[in-house]
Fold this protein.
Amino acid sequence: MAFNKFIGTQVGRQNFQRTGTMLSNNFQRTRMFSEAQQTEKMTLVGAINSALDVALETDPHSCLFGEDVAFGGVFRAAVGLREKYGPERVFNTPLCEQGIAGFAIGLAANGVTSIAEIQFADYIFPAFDQIVNEAAKLRYRSGGTYNCGKLVFRAPYGAVGHGGHYHSQSPEAYFCHTPGLKVVVPSSPAEAKGLLLASIRDANPVIFLEPKWIYRSSVGEVPIGDFEIPLGKARIVKPGTSVTLVGWGAQMLVLEKAIEYAEKNLPGVSVELIDLRTLSPWDQETVINSVQKTGKLIVSHEAPVTGGLGAEISAKVMEKCFLSLEAPIERVCGYDTPFPGALEPVYVPSYLKVFDAIKKVVEYDI
Amino acid sequence: MFSSLKMTSALCRPTLIQRSFASQSPVSWNLPESAYTTHRCDKPKLEMTTTKEEALNFYRTMNVIRRIELSCDTLYKSGLIRGFLHLYLGQEAISTGVETVLGHKHHVIGAYRIHGWAYTRGISAKEMLAELTGRAAGSSKGKGGSMHLYRGATNFHGGNGIVGAQCPIGAGIAFAQQYLKQDTVTFSLYGDGAANQGQLHEAFNMSALWKLPVVYVCENNGYAMGTSVSRSTSNPDYFTHGNHVPGMRVDAVDVYAVKRATEYAVQHALAHGPLVLEFSTYRYSGHSISDPGTSYRTREEVNEMRQKRDPISRLKAFIEEHNLATADELKEIDRQVKAEVDEAAEFAKTTPEPDPSELFTHVYTDLPVTRGVEYHV
């Protein structure tokens, strides 16, 4: 039972990088916006700032608030907005997530679009009761009389290389498990802007998790002005024929690297990469169509494997594609431990672990 | 808030009652009235006495803490410490002054700006820096990092990352002490930011209801991350936040004022139940190492605090004024402190990292293997 030290040590630390652009030129991009729309090069966090700017501009009854938001926020996502829209609309809250959440819900319920920032997704738990018991159930329990649509909880999530237990968590599964909420995770600048604008305007409360590791390193062309990417629709980042690989957020970069490595080292293998974008409700149709074509599925996320969203996707695909499957579904995820400190490189689902899974499903033989 | 502190600093030179001519005999003086502001309780006695030994101990401890923090800064900038790091620079008098009274039979639980407390709770500079560099010889076996320093033998419950979460936990620890008739108290530390967390007020209520032997210590350094007290808290008198729970604000630049407040607080908690101690202090560094600390306050302000409200300078002036030690004796302490911390830093750079299998230990106690893991040989 020796642990694979190779992955844990040298490769894990040296090659575990989150650098670079979102997509290499080899991958086809699904057209999201018209040819005519002008674009601007931006970082992911810059795109979020742009989305917030557009949201506040186009909706005169909207507010952005959270801890340290007034000076621009700890990640500079809100920079310049208080100066532009004024202190009544862009303001600091005290350090009280439960209070922030309840406040945001009431604000939205009474007709003001609410964009609440939780400083790190790891801190969302004091707000969990408000989000799960109030936001998610308000429309249902009032028979439609009240709702808190146009409410977004934005939070940076995910591993950053050294975040440790409380600056690295991926809590999406807890919220996907709650009917009444939507959960959205962008993977690149243009995606971030379009999905955030759609989330802010959605008639349901949305948890918007931002991949903070690639806030600055993910750079791309982002449409100028107002545009949305529809929620509930996944994106086929790269079409393929032998294996379906599903992920979201910062993990997309790891998956791209794994695919590059796999297609070079496993002859004839062609991986179809899907970015789920919206985790709840997730685009079952796109994934099922893909697996019916390839016969093999791998889901990969940073959050611990047990009870993670990969489990839900696996179960649904098993249900709907049972006779199409040629190998058991693989999940390449974080282990069932708290997110570690110094041992992070051992914990994370690195590109070689994903490659191992690709190899396993491709070579699977009864 | 700072205007009142400026006034305090001018008044804080101790009024001398008796000057000793031989540096070996104890020094007595009165702490200034302005060192304490109370809420539903009496002021502690202001007559104070100290010896050369005590003064030099304070001096030494505060300097070790300061050096450790400066060493952390250097190690971080050379990439050997990673993650989140919250420095105690400027606040050294609090853990030093409290600990001299408290002793390790009493319990302490705190938040993440905890290095000063970790040191006074018995975690050596070596073990601390090794923990920060993520090595197996660290106090949490390299698995905790800066925010999660613990020591069972000295009843030190850390070291906690989530703001305010430690406060109700502190109430629970105190309940156990009461239940087990241990005649000891818990010091539950938090900051001005955490003061706005609901769970702190829940803890106040429970402690008051059940008369728990807990002292809530608010280390008010003026800023919650980047938000100042005036912009986040409607009532900036944190020592009154317990409502009917008594409280006291203490000027934490004066380590002796801290010591006297602690004596008072321990006595109170054992006899009557909870008390809120607010220590007025300041941090020179940003909130964490990734915060320059200047986007929400001016450099002039930071420099002024260094000049006028530094606890180590204040103690040094006191020692010199009362001839408690010569300049050479103080320099010798400085030299020893430097040697101790430098050695610890070297150790932290070279001692080995934990084995990757440590990822899976300490999740549970009864499951030998973490579920869902396949080990590949």
Notes: Chain B touches chain A through 46 residues (CB under 8 Å). The first helix of chain B runs from residue 2 to 11.
